[in-house]
Amino acid sequence: MNCVTPAPVPTPVPALDDIRRAAATMAGTVPITPLVEAPTLSELLGCRILLKLENMQRTGSFKERGALTRLQSLTPKQRRIGVIAMSAGNHAQGVACHAGRLGIPATIVMPEGTPFTKVARTEAYGAQVVLHGATLAEAAAHAHERAAADGLLFVHPYDDFDVIRGQGTIGLEMLQQAPDLDVLVVPIGGGGLISGIAIAAKGIKSDIRVFGVQSELYPSMRQALAGVPIICGGATIAEGIAVAAPGTIAQSVARDLVEDIILVSETTLEQAIFQLLTVQKIVAEGAGAAGLAAIMSRPAAFRGATVGLVVCGGNIDARLLASVLMRGLVRDGRLVRLRIKIADAPGELARVTQVVGESGGNIVEVFHQRLFHNVPIKLADLDIMIETRDASHVQTILKRLGEERFQAQLMTDIS
Questions:
Q1: Contacts of 339 (CB under 8 A, 6+ apart)
Q2: Engineered SS bond to 261: which of 198, 222, 304, 341, CB 3.0-4.6 Å?
Q3: CA-CA distance, 170 to 188, in Å (whole number)?
Q4: Which fold has domain 332-410?
């Protein structure tokens, strides 16, 4: 759970000119990312979709915009003493990257269970990594203690005037690249991203609609705006927006400028990652795919509109991505598991494989069970994983097996 204590004293809300100044100061350092058409996804979902590819930043996410803007605002004394931040992911790398480039000492506090690859990447930018606590909340508390003891400036991941105006530069770019945008859909964790983008977009084009999106497991901003207790938690694929304490600045901006916050399921987030990779050839982490998940959840709300989606990051674990891809193939009926009863006699396995092959299926794995499925002693169970064209192709294979008097059952069940 990404739970970070909000800044104790709310700072003023940035204005459009503040965001424009941020864009000017980061020019030539943080690249302007592409805004690309997604024609196939647009056709599938009934609206024109454009993708803002923040996953193409050096650190793989939008976070370095806000981090750089905050670091550029430091006094010479603050630069000399250094900064501290708490993060287990994108914010850590954003701060480390630009602090290292600017020669500012940086300490990043990460929970003790942070994957080694994230620790190594952060250290590679020159930051000192301190592993402390079992949770992000414990790491955050330690970071604040270190900041007070050592005189370090704490760089908040989202509830900070400069961080928000840095993130808002994405909104400037999107409307420069596509002035005809009708709608923006932006992931919400602590709210720094959507508040900056909403200020910029609404300042340039007052009638543009801005939607937020959160995981169903972490609806903290939606709950905060509704004035109800914040209840969130659980294992989410969108850990980048798994925030239990939304920022105070972001809440005031969202209340005025965000039209609605859409909650999306874990299944839809997973499907959105799969669609971005297989259809658009774009790698997105769970938070980065949240905008597409929102349209997939409520297509009627966007039908016919020109919609800008912020692919806010692409730092997804390779093993997790592999699982998403395989599960996506299962959902599409392109990878299935059949259980087939056969006589425990020579030649039966060959007959099954011949039927499957003649039907156009590609057998990936075969498990031949005689002992553990409680089958009659003269029978055996075959569990066969088959690569197919689609769900209708699976039915063709099942029909052919039935015609050859094989009892075949589809075992795949991922909704």
A1: 381, 382, 383, 384, 408, 409, 411
A2: 222
A3: 14
A4: Alpha-Beta Plaits (3.30.70)
How many residues comprise the chain?
415
Residue 355 in tokens? 């039927």
Decide: residue 77, CB within 10 A, 0-12 exposed, 13-18 middle, 19+ buried.
exposed
pLDDT in tens, 180-198: 999 999 999 999 999 999 9
Residue 405 backbone zone (phi > 0: left; psi -120 to 50: alpha; other: beta): left
Integer-rounded Cα radius of gyration of the chain: 25
What one-character-per-residue DSSP string does 313-368 give? B----HHHHHHHHHHHHHHTTSEEEEEEEEESSTTHHHHHHHHHHHTT-EEEEEEE
Its CATH architecture, for the domain 16-58+164-326, is 3-Layer(aba) Sandwich (3.40)
Q: How many Cα atoms are found within 13 Å in the side-chain-facing hemisphere of 99?
A: 32
- Asked if 221 contacts 214 with a C-beta cutoff of 8 angstroms, the reply is yes
For 2, the 3-state DSSP assignment is: strand
pLDDT tens digits along 225-275: 999 999 998 999 999 999 989 999 999 999 999 999 999 999 999 999 999
The answer to whether domain 16-58+164-326 and domain 83-151 are alike in fold is yes
Cα separation, 314 vs 66, in Å, equals 17
- What secondary structure letter does DSSP report for 412? -
Residue with tokens 């029978």: 379
Backbone dihedral angles phi then psi of residue 11, each to the nearest 5 degrees: -90, 165
Q: In the 8-state DSSP scheme, what is residue 299?
A: G
End-to-end CA distance of the chain: 26
Domain borders along the chain are 16-58+164-326, 83-151, 332-410
- Hey, what are 302's tokens? 């966007």
Closest CA to 349 of 398, 402, 400, 406: 406
Nearest CA among 137, 159, 161, 126 for reference residue 86: 137
Find all residues with CB under 8 Å of 59, minimum gap 6, and list them. Answer: 90, 93, 94, 97, 315
